[in-house]
Amino acid sequence: MTVPQLAVRMQGWLESKEYRAEIFEDGREVIAYAIFREDPSELHLRQFFVVRDRRRKRHGKAAMQLLFNAVWPANKRITVEVLADNAAALGFYRALGFNDYAVTLEMPAKGVV
Fold first, then answer.
1. What's the pLDDT tens digit per position in 76-95?
2. Global confidence as pTM
3. How far is 3 from 20, CA to CA, in rounded Å?
C-alpha cells in the first residue's frame, strides 16, 4: 500500500471508534505509535510502529512497557499478528513475553484456468 492508502486505512480504524491510538514522543518528535482495540476479554494490538532510526535502541520496549503498565489492564490477554517472515518483529514480541499461538497458512492464487 502507498502512504496515502495507509493513512486512509488508519483514519478509518480510528474514526470507527473500535480502535484507539497511543503516540510515543521524545521531546516533540514522534518515535512510535500503537493502534489497538479492547474487547471484554482481550486486547488486540493491530499495529505497533517504531521510527526506523529509533529501532534497536530500546524505544520500542519502553513504549510497550508503558502500554503494559499504564494503559492496558493487566487482566486481559493481548494478541498481535506478525508476518511469518518478519524475524525482527517475532524476536521483539517474543522477548517481551508473547508466545506463539497459531499459524495461518496460505496458498497464493495460481490464476484462473
1. 999 999 999 999 999 999 99
2. 0.81
3. 20
Bridge-based pairing state of the strands 20-26 and 29-38: antiparallel
Query: 3-class SS at 97?
Result: coil
SS3 of 63-85: the string is: HHHHHHHHHCCCCCEEEECCCCC
Cα distance between residue 69 and residue 1, in whole Å: 33
If we measure between CA atoms, which residue out of 55, 26, 96, 24 comes closest to residue 35?
24
Residues 43, 76 contacting (CB under 8 angstroms): yes
In angstroms, rounded to a whole number, what is the distance separating the alpha carbons of residues 92 and 17? 28
